[in-house]
Amino acid sequence: TQLLKQSPQFLSIQEGENLTVYCNSSSVFSSLQWYRQEPGEGPVLLVTVVTGGEVKKLKRLTFQFGDARKDSSLHITAAQTGDTGLYLCAGANDYKLSFGAGTTVTVRA
Amino acid sequence: KAGVTQTPRYLIKTRGQQVTLSCSPISGHRSVSWYQQTPGQGLQFLFEYFSETQRNKGNFPGRFSGRQFSNSRSEMNVSTLELGDSALYLCASSLAPGGTTEAFFGQGTRLTVV
Fold this sequence. Notes:
heterodimer, A: mainly beta, six-stranded mixed β-sheet, 11 strands, B: mainly beta, seven-stranded mixed β-sheet, four-stranded antiparallel β-sheet, globular
């Protein structure tokens, strides 16, 4: 059973469109991390959010941590083909990271 | 600086055999975590080692074991392989344990059990 549920599981959009990926849990986390993984590679950390209600922006990517520190979202503005990949959220508590199943994002040219 | 190195990159084993995977963390990192990644289950936490001690363990059978050496390099062993053990095995290194600091992942070892 996944502690963190990500939605949607798959997302296919045209270049230039916006997208949002959600990460939800009934557990409270001390921090939440977002990773992107490309085929044949390990996940690469994009951002860590720590404070409830926190919003972080990384160029065209906006990350939000829920007020109760149980959920998070990732919003990409004007997606590019280079944004294609598997997006994973991971919550830290009890001295370990628990990962969601991931959202596969495909950006078509 | 050099990243996390996992060897081998690919392995094919037969049911019933055992396998050992290796992970060399980033220099200075003392925490190494292992994950199993499959299409259906995503990343599942196996265990974490910090300064040669297992700090945390996931819900995997005892066939899965690991250890960490004094130079922080870690090995993972799977005995009596089953078809369901086919997966990408990832290790991640970090400065501190427990997901409190950034985790850097290796490229993984793709294990196929036939």
